[in-house]
Amino acid sequence: MQDREEFYKNLKSKLKKGTKFPSKYLFKFIVKGEENKEKEVEDIFNHMGAVITKNKSKTGKYISVSIIVNMKSADAVIDKYLEAEKVEGIISL
After folding, report:
1. Closest CA to 22 of 75, 73, 78, 77
2. pTM for the structure as a whole
3. Distances from the Cα of 8 to the Cαs of 12, 20, 36, 41, 64, in angstroms?
4. How do residues 16-37 score in pLDDT, each as one tens digit?
5. What's the mean per-residue pLDDT of the chain?
6. Of 1, 28, 46, nearest in space to 93 by CA
7. What is the pLDDT of residue 33?
8. Which of 89, 88, 87 is nearest to 41 (CA)?
9. 41: burial class by Cβ within 10 Å (0-12, 13-18, 19+)?
10. 1 pLDDT above the threshold of 60
11. CATH number of the domain bearing residue 82
12. Percent of residues, the chain, with pLDDT higher than 90
């Protein structure tokens, strides 16, 4: 739990130093392919004008989901990562 909090604290600091908001941000996730998890990830960014690209692994066991979306602030980026954590088995890159 503390590592997660430290990760988001560091991410927020890096975003504030290196990104001028509002700005386009690239989110990358990996989800299991057989359980329609990519739809759950897509729903998190629904109605935001996101450009979503999906690629299946060779075996189809996993799907990478790349999302480019305009974000208003570092806090908004972190909020989306926290929301995505609720998807079972998701890996954030």
Report:
1. 73
2. 0.90
3. 6, 18, 27, 19, 22
4. 999 999 999 999 999 998 778 8
5. 93
6. 28
7. 87
8. 87
9. buried
10. no
11. 3.30.70.260
12. 85
- Report the number of distinct structural domains present in the chain: 1
What is the domain range of residue 17?
2-92
For the chain, the maximum distance between any two Cα atoms, rounded to a whole number of angstroms, is 40
Q: How confident is the model at residue 4 (pLDDT cuts 50, 70, 90)?
A: confident
Cα separation, 48 vs 2, whole angstroms: 30
Quick one: 81 exposed, middle or buried, by C-beta within 10 A (0-12, 13-18, 19+)?
A: middle
Task: State how far the alpha carbon of 39 is from the alpha carbons of 25, 26, 35, 42, 51, in Å.
Answer: 20, 18, 9, 5, 14
- Annotate 6-75 with DSSP letters as a single string: HHHHHHHHHHHHH-PSSEEEEEEEEEETTTTHHHHHHHHTTTTT-EEEEEE-TTSSEEEEEEEEEES-HH
Quick one: which of 64, 71, 55 has its CA closest to 22? 71
